[in-house]
TrEMBL record:
<dbReference type="InterPro" id="IPR025483">
    <property type="entry name" value="Lipase_euk"/>
</dbReference>
<feature type="active site" description="Charge relay system">
    <location>
        <position position="369"/>
    </location>
</feature>
<dbReference type="Pfam" id="PF04083">
    <property type="entry name" value="Abhydro_lipase"/>
</dbReference>
<feature type="active site" description="Charge relay system">
    <location>
        <position position="338"/>
    </location>
</feature>
<comment type="similarity">
    <text>Belongs to the AB hydrolase superfamily. Lipase family.</text>
</comment>
<feature type="domain" description="Partial AB-hydrolase lipase">
    <location>
        <begin position="30"/>
        <end position="88"/>
    </location>
</feature>
<keyword id="KW-0378">Hydrolase</keyword>
<feature type="active site" description="Nucleophile">
    <location>
        <position position="164"/>
    </location>
</feature>
<dbReference type="GO" id="GO:0016788">
    <property type="term" value="F:hydrolase activity, acting on ester bonds"/>
</dbReference>
<dbReference type="InterPro" id="IPR006693">
    <property type="entry name" value="AB_hydrolase_lipase"/>
</dbReference>
<keyword id="KW-0443">Lipid metabolism</keyword>
<keyword id="KW-0325">Glycoprotein</keyword>
<keyword id="KW-0732">Signal</keyword>
<protein>
    <recommendedName>
        <fullName>Lipase</fullName>
    </recommendedName>
</protein>
<dbReference type="GO" id="GO:0016042">
    <property type="term" value="P:lipid catabolic process"/>
</dbReference>
<keyword id="KW-0442">Lipid degradation</keyword>
<dbReference type="InterPro" id="IPR029058">
    <property type="entry name" value="AB_hydrolase_fold"/>
</dbReference>
Amino acid sequence: MLRYLVILLLAQGILSRRDEVDTYLKAIKRRITQDGYPFEEHSIETKDGYILGVHRISYSPVSGRSPKKPPVFIQHGLLSSSNDWIVSGPGKGLAYILADAGYDVWMGNARGNTFSRKHKTLSPKDKRFWAFSWDEIGYYDLPAMIDYVLKKTGRTSLNYIGYSQGTTSFFVMTSLRPEYNKKIKSMHALAPVAFMSNVINPFLRVLAPRISKMSYLQSILGNFEFMPSSKFMALAGAALCRRTSVFKVLCKNALFLIGGFNPDNLNASLIPEIVKGAPAGASINQIIHYAQSVVSGHFRRYDFGTSKNKARYGRSDPPDYPLKKITAPVHLYYGNNDWLTSKKDVQILASKLPNVPYNKMVPNPKFNHLDFMWATNIYNLVYGDLINNLKAYT
């Protein structure tokens, strides 16, 4: 199986694409408007020059128009994009559910993904474009997007929902830039990822010691972008994973090998739509940073090596993120069968956060990492509680 994983990585590196932001933008706009919801695309420049695409659903056919709708910001996970919040369709996709509940929904896109592949001076073909991990996403991207949303809506604070890496980057932002805690009414962490020493995923546990070093992973991929999306791969994935395809079972198992096995909770007919927009691309450094977390047992900044660490941090090892500075209320939602977010690691995180009003395992023993986006019964298991928790801060 490891051999096939390496082949997949090589294929993704070979099939790295030209910039197709407009193609994917038209697709998500068409999908949202066809579902009967309004769509807005906003471009936001970070202080270090990245241009991010942020998508907005300001109202819904259910809730109607209103200038006073409270803003809620959703941030995707690793290799994902805003597309993942609408792909399930009305009544199931989180963005639609929030809009129906009366929220002004803003969906972020981190640097390097399908909708955020632009920079003031750098091209995605330049390796310098990819010189970032989720440390920079938390320090630069989230603050830029949150400040933009608050200015646009005339608010001083908003509710934040993060999934997987969207929780990691939030913890980076509010620990390194604690002034942003005041701009967060509440934070809702779906499958929170910070500490990773107890991760269950067997491939990650085996590979982490090797891929935690830049030279090894780069030698496999040959570049600095990890699993970029492409028009060709989207079409191929949709064809191979369609309901009538003999390869459908492989598509399902590929998802389970990432986040944990739960075939009863996966709508297999949704897979062709999922693979049209995923994986959405990321920097190799994001993968390396997570691998470093598995190996070290710490939730800390990127490890550049002893000499570079001394120059950057003033010490040989990277410093831990100061989680005690996170004063915003953090709500933790996690699964029992999550191969990337273990129960032990979530509780380690909870013990270090000063304000955790909600800390609950999803009441389904098979609930896995990807179920937080696409489970067939996601509303009853997670989103219902999420909406109720949001109301306390609205």
